[in-house]
Design brief:
Radius of gyration: 51 Å
Distance between the termini: 132 Å
Number of helices: 5
Number of strands: 0
Shape: flat
Strand content: under 5%
Length: about 190
């Protein structure tokens, strides 16, 4: 047993870089009784690894049990194939007969029903579009009302300015005709 090779392979194993042959060599090394003490701590990994692989392989490939053997007989296989073919043919013929039995009147009636359903959906859509148009006009009216309220506020401001101007004009006239001078220097 080459200890340096085992240690290199251990490093590769834990890095996930070993091949299946190298892993088999490591399992063989760790099955020995004369394993050095510093490698003894890795023994459970490879013993568990081996037993896990054996368990998984047993689950994946269960042993084949002896069956009754009916599938081995030629006449049973032929009978099963014939039954399958008969079922497929009868199903195809049934579907074909159902498709041929549909007459033109049924097709025309189905077309009329589909057409009426589409027309009803179209009328609902048209009605909904009309209501949406009314909502658009309502929105425009609300916008105009808001603009009118803005105009009314502006008019109020103009009236206030006119009142201020009128008050100023009255003051000017009062001082002009009364010779009132509050800050007259004596």
């Amino acid at each position: 047993m080459n200890l340096q090779k085992v240690e290199i392979l251990l490093n590769h194993f834990f890095e996930g870089k070993t091949t299946s042959g190298e892993e088999a060599y490591l399992r063989e090394v760790f099955q020995r009784e004369d394993l050095p003490e510093h490698l003894e701590k890795y023994r459970p990994v490879f013993v568990l690894y081996k037993s896990e692989r054996e368990t998984r392989a047993a689950k994946q490939f269960p042993e084949m049990t002896q069956s009754s053997g009916w599938h081995k007989s030629t006449w049973m296989r032929r009978l099963a194939m014939a039954a399958t073919v008969a079922i497929l043919i009868s199903t195809g013929l049934f579907i074909d007969s159902r498709l041929r039995s549909v007459d033109k009147q049924e097709v025309h009636a189905a077309y009329k029903q589909t057409h009426s359903a589409i027309m009803m959906a179209s009328s609902y859509l048209t009605k909904g579009m009309g209501e949406a148009e009314e909502m658009k006009h309502l929105g425009e009216a609300i916008d105009q009302t808001e603009r009118m309220s803005d105009i009314a506020e502006a008019m109020d401001d103009v009236q206030k300015l006119e009142q201020i101007e009128t008050g100023y004009n009255k003051t000017v006239l009062f001082t002009k005709y009364t010779n009132y001078q509050p800050f007259k220097i004596k």
